[in-house]
Design brief:
single chain, alpha/beta, Rossmann fold, Alpha-Beta Plaits, 2 domains, six-stranded mixed sheet, four-stranded antiparallel sheet, 13 strands, globular
Amino acid sequence: MQEPIIAVERLRKVYRVPVREKGLLPSVKALIHPVYNNVTAVDNINFQINRGEIVGFIGPNGAGKTTTLKMLSGLLYPTEGNTRVAGYIPYERQRDYLKTISMVMGNKSQLIPSITVMDSFYITKEIYQISSEDFKPRLEELSDLLEIEDLLNKLPRNLSLGERAKCEFAAALLYRPDILFLDEPTLGMDVSIQIRLRKFIKDYNKKYGTTIILTSHYMEDITSLCSRTIFINKGKLMYDGSLEELSRKLSPYKLIKATFKEELQEVSALLPKDSTLTEKNGLTYIFRVNKEEISETAGVLLRSNLIIDLTIENPSIEAVIDKAYQEGV
């Protein structure tokens, strides 16, 4: 049986947050006798990830996703629990471990804004002791894959958000890490750049078997890249499995989109009792119907001779995730 490259057991992180009342006197008192509240960011979660997997790590804002990634990368010390990443204990921050992992955060830059992109790459080369024999072909490969050759002699501060993001990926992968943590990597980017970066991530994972944990609020990132999803909410792990299974679990219905020849006077007569009209636009109606009754309902609508067009759709993954956020799994 394959040994997991990432193993998390009873992982917990609690922050001590200072509590201060308004006004000068309470502020002075807080300096002498500080009062703290304990805020649990990650609460006793367990999971394992195998080598080469791309796993989506999702949840609402404040769920504990970034805190978990920071503990896995060794940037934060856990309050309780055990983590092993590529055989290392992350918070020990051993040199060999840091060469094994890389992290890209969509809201932070690892490029130095006052020097060219190429000079930042040279600094990465020296920090990670990449040989000249390895550095040149790796840079050429990443430049081709990410289409950044024309950007190498520019300053990062003069690049667009998408251009800078592609250069960030190149910097993160120059030393060929085994594990890549991606925290909102396509944040704020236009659709074209998002599509290109998704293709790059997928191709790179397929070629080198890099293990990837991806957090993103863009569900297209998750659906196009991740065969497995870990859902976390309020610090607790709520679900670990495929998005398809999560959708089946939370959405026992499908949508029938029907365009009629004329305005309907009595829609309910054509539908099962549990069905619901969710949207109407002109002569086009969208009904929510239990999956068990889809075939029968579609047949009734088609036999009515009132239909111009009919399609059956699954609810959007965004709707499924929103339901998970609101109601739990």
